[in-house]
Request: fold
Amino acid sequence: MLLHNCRVVLVRTQVAGNLGATARIMRNMGLSELVLVAPQANPAEREARQLSTHGEAILDNARIVPNLEEALADCVLVVATSARTGQLIRGQSRTPEEAMPLLLEALGGGRVALVFGPEPNGLTNEEVTRCHHLIHIPADPSYPALNLAQAVAICLYELRRIWLGAREPAADSNPAAFSDQERMFESLRAALEAIHFLYGPKADSLMHALRHLIGRAQPTETEVNLLLGLARQIRWYVSRNHATKVEISADKLRQVSAPESAAQRRA
Reply:
């Protein structure tokens, strides 16, 4: 169970110094994979290099991608961070101490990711819903927004602290890849929309709650395929039932119109 399997993802980072400081703390805590999503700051800038002491190689090898989906496609578990709480989407957050054991359990099954949003406003609600769990660092409520690099340091320290005392996870419970889970969620959403479980202004909130429920279970590839089959069966039943109703309506229309046509011929 290697910490190298844990990826740090920075989304739309604006301050070059935060890139450098993140690389340094990653080196301190034994992580090496940094992915930058549509960064506004350049990892080659002088400020980034100055603050990356002994983490220059991490900056040099950082992968730059255009969107969050590409950054997470091969991950089996994704944990986001947010200074904001409340409402349904951000109401089910955990402290770093509570979230890191979940991350460590998934390490044996593949890549996991810690996602940090941009400095001004953090991750959007849509980006948060793409993640399985949400971390909120319990700072003073009067000013809970930490500097990006500070938030990374707190989370990675907690991850390493728990990792040092962790046991090897079971090998037969590897979660499915993020991209497979996303495909399952899309199929499940289409099925639930077809039966109007997801309908109206609360549809997105209900889907987020469902994603959170399933995500907490860390479904395996077999379980994801089971849910995909369930979604396909729901859509098949809805389409079959709709076709049957159309046929019944057509038969009734023919029965009503037939006597009228006979009467018209006699006239």
Notes: The radius of gyration is 25 Å. DSSP finds eleven helices and seven strands in the chain. The CA atoms of residues 184 and 225 lie 8 Å apart. The chain has a mean pLDDT of 87.
